[in-house]
Amino acid sequence: MLIEYVHRLMIAVQSIKEVMLKPQWKHQIEKFVKHYVWHTSDVRRAANNKLWQRLESRLIEMKERRKRLLQNIYLREKNMDTNLPKINSSENADQDYSLEFQREYETKEAQKNVII
């Protein structure tokens, strides 16, 4: 839900001029963008980058984190299903599971987007 909220916020901020934002709104968005939990630095803060661009950076990172988490869970479950420890599983099996995950992930994302 947070990802969807940030996506909608980014679109809203993009559609209006930043000067129209209340200072308290802008301050809160800045706090979110600059928060210490982000792995990537706020490179878009430099120069004259727009607030919506900086939100977009955070949105991309959130989506990448969620995808990595889901992929790790998926691979762990597949390894449990085959009763093979991760150390003994072949690289080909991991690649097959990664491709399988990618297909399923894209299908589920498309379904979710239709619903949203």
**Rg calc:** 19 Å
In N-to-C order, the SSE pattern is HHHH
- The quaternary state of the protein chains shown equals single chain
Structural class: mainly alpha
Helix content: over 70%
Q: Termini, distance in Å?
A: 10 Å
Total helix count? Answer: 4
Mean pLDDT equals 84
Q: Using DSSP, what is the number of strands?
A: 0
In total, how many domains does the architecture comprise?
1
Shape: elongated
Provide the descriptors you would attach to this structure in a database record:
116 residues, mainly alpha
Structure in words:
The chain is mainly α and 116 residues long. It has 4 helices and no strands. The mean pLDDT is 84.
What is the gist of this entry?
With 116 residues, the protein is mainly alpha-helical.
Task: Summarize the SSE layout with pairings.
Elements: H1 2-15, H2 23-34, H3 51-81, H4 91-115
